[in-house]
TrEMBL record:
Residues 190-599 form the TonB-dependent receptor-like beta-barrel domain. This is TonB-dependent receptor. Belongs to the TonB-dependent receptor family. It comes from Halomonas saccharevitans. Residues 1-24 form the signal peptide. Pfam families: Plug, TonB_dep_Rec_b-barrel. Keywords: Cell outer membrane, Ion transport, Membrane, Receptor, Signal, TonB box, Transmembrane, Transmembrane beta strand, Transport. The keyword Transmembrane applies. It is a multi-pass membrane protein. It is found in: Cell outer membrane.
């Protein structure tokens, strides 16, 4: 397949979708229009930490709602994110293998993953373990592209992905799903949700078990299992106060190849939170949240244990002054890696704390809107950082909004960057040394973005242009201090410039649902004058679904060009096109079945050198309840 030609053809199709959507509009009922408006211009909270519709956020936002999640029914969260506007994914194979998510060309450790407002990541590696999250536990995803350091602090350089669990609403609703498919995969999930007397609840559990497939040629199948439990409860009082609790825990095992020898890793991913919210006055709401996130992996083959927890106490206040809103608060966070062992030793420091204060003003002077934010972080390990943002919006008409923004962010050095224990190994007469560096400082970035959005009743389009400059980039540089000695240690020597353009189109017309995303990226290592590794520079994703009475049919097509597997741009990984097909049938009231065919064209492709992704795979499920 000629990926370049395919990409151009699909790009032309996406651009053509906008006028076709206009021509295809036909009279519809008011309720249909309301549903389309909620889907195409939904309320979001991640971009501003305050409810705003997508066109009011003055940011590049993508919302994946419950209907899209259930239609696609992915086995991995990264399948849902791949090819979304400004988002790229690389994996060391499928089914629980190491995955990285790049937002606007920034690294996996330069973007945040949050679950219901709780940040989840490894404090040693810095990035999130996307591969261990079951998509069936969530009913919504928000992707905010661009720096959010003024709201979320460290590491929100490229953007934020937030996953939301169901809250529960209405009469008690049970849901059950059983299924399986290729690679001897078995899946099961069950949940119960509802509300009564001001109390909302949702409890769920899921299990995935698979024999996997041959990720590295000749090394045999690599299996994976995941067991996840979720509890979410909240109660609202007559005076406007609310309290709630969340607990999500995923654990299991993933198999891989360790230099030709079968190995496996036991893992735990966990978030827990308790919050209280009080309407102090008619114009002032205060919220206090206490949370903990845990990322744990244990690999016997390496005699290693990485067990990191992040505890956070956050106090946030919202005040309204007519059409304007002020969000301000403070946050205390402590990272702890006690007990972690690399296999070569323990860390010199096992904990650090961070104290931050922040404020954001959301002002509406129609047709002009202004958003300004400022945050100060004081970290025990690497000192103080000040980040800020300013966004301006102008309503060109009832349907079109022009926006411009400038924001700064920083990436904090991880425990590995600062304190990785001294490790020395000799192979074929050469000694390799790995060690952290306590003298490195955080990366800093500045991003300018210009965008315009067209928001209509049954469709929308959003175009954004941006540039991000990263200074003092942390890089594990290779050094040869003497003959036959190679040393790897992080330093602040690199600079990067990332330019890009994104076009998102969505439409909901009669029984058709369309979403298209076109991304162009230029991620350059300014020092080496090379492309940053692991990123494709051209990407298109097309999702198209049709309701046909009791049936539904749909598909997704993701096309990406080549990427490089190394900093020197010598390992070229070819582009690819993936077609995923799906069909659903409600064969009886409350009962349905769903069939998905992933990689329908059986494309063989790599996003990391020597690690194959799954070929054609089919999965069938039988469901009870509104899945």
């Amino acid at each position: 397949m000629n990926t370049t030609h395919a990409f151009r053809g699909l790009a032309a199709f996406a651009l053509a979708a906008l006028p076709l959507a206009v021509q295809a509009q036909s009279p519809s009922s008011a309720s249909d229009d309301e549903v389309a408006t909620e889907t195409l211009n939904p309320l979001t909270v991640t971009a501003t930490r305050a409810p705003r519709t997508a066109d009011e956020t003055l940011a590049s936002v993508t919302v994946i709602d419950e209907a899209a999640l259930r239609r696609q029914d992915p086995t991995d969260i990264t399948d849902l994110l791949r090819g979304q506007p400004g988002v790229d994914v690389s994996t060391n194979g499928g089914f629980g293998k190491t995955s990285s998510v790049y937002i606007r060309g920034t690294g996996n450790d330069q973007s945040l993953l949050m679950i219901d407002g709780i940040r989840l990541r490894s404090a040693t590696l810095g990035g999130a373990s996307w591969q261990f999250l079951d998509p069936r536990m969530f009913d919504r995803a928000e992707i905010v592209r661009g720096p959010r350091g003024s709201l979320y602090g460290a590491d929100a350089v490229g953007g934020v992905v937030q996953l939301f669990t169901p809250q529960g609403e209405g009469a008690p609703t049970p849901r059950i799903s059983l299924g399986g498919g290729s690679f001897d995969t078995r899946r099961a999930s069950a949940s119960l949700s509802g509300s009564e007397g001001g109390t909302r609840y949702h409890v769920a559990a899921s299990r995935l078990d698979t024999d996997g497939y041959e990720i590295i040629e000749g090394e045999g199948d690599k299996g994976y299992d995941n067991t996840t439990g979720l509890v979410r409860l909240s109660h609202g009082f007559n005076n406007g106060a609310e309290v709630g609790v969340l607990a999500l825990r995923a654990r299991g095992n993933t198999e891989f190849d360790a230099n030709g020898t079968p190995a496996d890793t036991d893992y735990v991913q966990q978030v827990a939170g308790l919050y209280g919210e009080l309407l102090v006055t008619e114009v002032w709401k205060s919220r206090l949240t206490l949370s903990e996130a845990r990322d744990k992996t244990e690999t016997a083959a390496y005699d290693s244990l990485f067990d990191t927890t992040t505890q956070t106490l956050r106090w946030e206040n919202s005040a309204w002054f007519g059409p304007h809103e002020l969000v301000a608060g403070a946050e205390y966070q402590e990272d702890d890696i006690a007990g972690s062992d690399t296999g070569s030793g323990t860390y010199a420091e096992e904990s650090r704390d961070n104290l931050a204060v922040f404020a954001q003003a959301l002002m509406d002077f129609a047709p002009v809107s202004v958003q300004a934010g400022l945050r100060h972080d004081d970290n025990e390990a690497y000192g103080e950082e000040l980040t800020g943002s300013l966004a301006l919006g102008y309503d060109l008409s009832e349907y079109h909004t022009l926006r411009a923004s400038y924001g700064t962010a920083f990436r904090a050095p991880t425990f590995n960057d600062l304190y990785y224990p001294y490790q020395s190994s000799t192979f074929f007469g050469t000694t390799y040394i790995t060690e952290g560096n306590e003298n490195i400082t955080p990366e800093t970035s500045a991003t300018f973005e210009l965008g315009v959005r067209g928001q209509y009743q049954q469709y929308f389009w959003d175009l954004a242009l941006y540039q991000t400059d990263v200074e003092d980039m942390i890089d594990w540089a290779k050094d040869e201090p003497s003959p036959n000695v190679v040393r790897y240690q992080p330093t602040n020597i690199e600079e990067a410039r990332i330019r890009g353009a994104e076009l998102a189109v969505g439409a909901q017309i009669n029984d058709w649902t369309l979403a298209a995303a076109l991304t162009y990226l230029d991620p350059e290592d300014r020092k080496e004058e090379k492309r940053l590794p692991g990123r494709a520079t051209q990407s298109l994703r097309l999702d198209l679904d049709r309701e046909l009475g009791d049936w539904s049919l749909g598909g997704s097509w993701v096309v990406q060009n080549h990427r490089y597997g190394d900093k020197e741009n010598e390992e070229r990984l070819g582009g690819f096109g993936l077609a995923n097909l799906r069909a659903g049938w409600e064969f009886s009231p409350g009962w349905s079945t769903r069939l998905t065919l992933e990689n329908a064209l059986d494309k063989e492709y790599e996003t990391v050198r020597n690690y194959l992704n799954a070929g054609r795979a089919a999965y069938l499920s039988v469901n009870f309840g509104a899945l």
